Amino acid sequence: LRDIAFETLRNAFLHSRGTHVALTLAYDADALWLVVTDDGTGFDNSTAEKARESGHVGLLGLRERVHRLKGTLNVDSEPGQGTEIHIKVPARTAYGRYRRRWWSRLR
Predict the structure, then answer these.
(1) How many angstroms separate the CA atoms of 16 and 19, rounded?
(2) What is the pLDDT of residues 69-104, one digit of tens each?
(3) Angle subtended at Cα 69 by Cα 48 and Cα 102, rounded to the nearest 5 degrees
(4) Nearest-CA neighbor of 47 among 9, 77, 26?
């Protein structure tokens, strides 16, 4: 998940041409959410398709990494409106090996 967060931030800083980039990490009993937003130039789906055809696989690679974690990836972007990337990873994947230790501290 750290690598996914790094990649989304890197893409925002390199490509958005915005002035603000924000990362929000939220957790709940059923999932962990990572949201990265920027106020940059945004893009439309045809731009993403052209980038993929010319060998740029940033979003495709990101989608594959999220899929390996059994998560979901949603990208909301429009030209001139910035970009929001929402990633949801199920609790079983996100907290799996830490769950027992974390809960035992509450008793």
Answers:
(1) 9
(2) 999 999 999 999 999 999 999 999 998 865 555 555
(3) 135
(4) 77
